[in-house]
What does this fold into?
Amino acid sequence: MLKNDNILLSFGETIHKYRGIAGLSQESLAEKAGLDRTYISSVERGQRNVSLLNICKLANALQLPPSELLVNVGRSA
Amino acid sequence: MLKNDNILLSFGETIHKYRGIAGLSQESLAEKAGLDRTYISSVERGQRNVSLLNICKLANALQLPPSELLVNVGRSA
DNA sequence: TTGTGACTGTTAGTCCGTC
DNA sequence: TGACGGACTAACAGTCACA
It folds into this structure.
């Protein structure tokens, strides 16, 4: 589905944006979040359907409330 | 991890709350979201680590922005 | 109307690399 | 520093019968 891709892409862009603001590399974000370097890469490219727990891990690593990572995500699915 | 359970539980409570406000049964919410009734049940009980796409499906069915479903979710993971 | 355990196919997520 | 691929294991999606 196209809409699904938009959701994942939008989420990936949000991660990319906040990671830039935090001045972190994909690798250091991965380390902070307890995730894999290649996983962060694929999330930012909208290739992964991230789970709630990992959304929270990422929010935590970026020092943001989890809901902040979804504000730019559309309602459609 | 205990914190993880708290996140899932908190998310489940949020779904339960908004479903009540919308006056929907688990079954009718399931139908609106294109998901299974028993899946909704397990989500509300915090037994499922829901994915981003399904969070959006639920938000859509409840006519809420996806971020609204995460406002009560803690930052920890 | 909802809770629950169990099940299978698919994908999340890791680890090894290369470019 | 990040994109991208292959191979692998753990976990989720989705569904069922039964309570």
